[in-house]
Design a protein that fits this description.
Blueprint (H helix, E strand, L loop, with lengths): L1 H7 L5 H15 L7 H28 L15 H26 L3 H4 L13 H13 L3 H18 L11 H9 L12 H13 L6 H22 L1
């Protein structure tokens, strides 16, 4: 009976077995027993992060200007007043030019509406001649040029050489005038020249002079002479 009891007794004590398991686990945690795949992955990630950090540092070093040479540098005290003076001069010059431009073209919007203002379409040639003389006396030379030029067109209408059409431009009138073989142009009257000069004065805002207005008045007188020659 003793022999059977001895055969059934555990070979080791439970406490000793637990202690041995703990020792085995501790041994496996040593580097000698570590999984090589885990170590290789960790080393690769660490190297990649290190390379990325070094590349970023090199990039930021290139982008950052070297200001060591500028330390202690300052502009002379007279620079800023000079800059402000130049800028002020430019602004004043631009404003002066803008004012002169607006003054020279103050009537251009009204003039660009057409040859006639509202209510002027029924005025006879003699009335345009009188208005031109009045504007010339007031030294409103551009308006005087318009009146004398309209006196020409209306006189051509009154003598049945050219129909005056209120909504047509000066060049449209000239083209119809040129197309008529019996027009006073055949007698040497150059309506094209006076149409072009009218463009410069009235629409272009140039050559607002007394001499120009007097030249248009003389052109009207020349047209009357040509019409008389045509009627004779």
């Amino acid at each position: 009976e003793r022999r059977g009891s001895a055969a059934l007794r555990p070979l080791t004590d439970p406490a000793e077995s637990t202690q041995a398991s703990k020792q085995a686990s501790a041994i496996k945690k040593e580097n000698f027993y570590a999984d090589p795949a885990v170590g290789e992955t960790s080393n690769w990630m660490g190297k990649a992060l290190k390379d990325l950090r070094e590349a970023w540092e090199r990039l930021t070093e290139r982008a950052t200007p070297n200001v060591d040479g500028l330390q202690g540098f300052s502009l002379p005290t007279w620079i800023m007043p000079l800059v402000w003076a130049v800028l002020s001069g430019i602004v004043v010059g631009l404003l002066t030019w803008l004012g002169m431009y607006l003054y020279a073209h103050r009537g251009r919007v009204r003039k660009s509406e057409g040859l006639l203002a509202e209510g002027e379409e029924l005025l006879p040639a003699d009335e345009w001649l009188l208005r031109g003389e009045a504007e010339l006396h007031k030294q409103n030379f551009a308006e005087a040029v318009r009146c004398f030029y309209l006196a020409m067109l209306v006189r051509l209408d009154e003598t049945n050489h050219l129909e005056f059409r209120r909504h047509e431009t000066n060049w449209e009138h000239y083209r119809r005038f040129k197309a008529q073989p019996s027009s006073p142009g055949a007698y040497g009257f150059n309506l094209r020249d006076w149409t072009l000069r009218f463009d410069y004065v009235w629409y272009g805002g140039r050559d607002h002079t007394q001499e120009q207005a007097q030249a248009f008045r003389a052109a009207y007188s020349e047209l009357l002479s040509r019409l008389k020659e045509r009627a004779a």
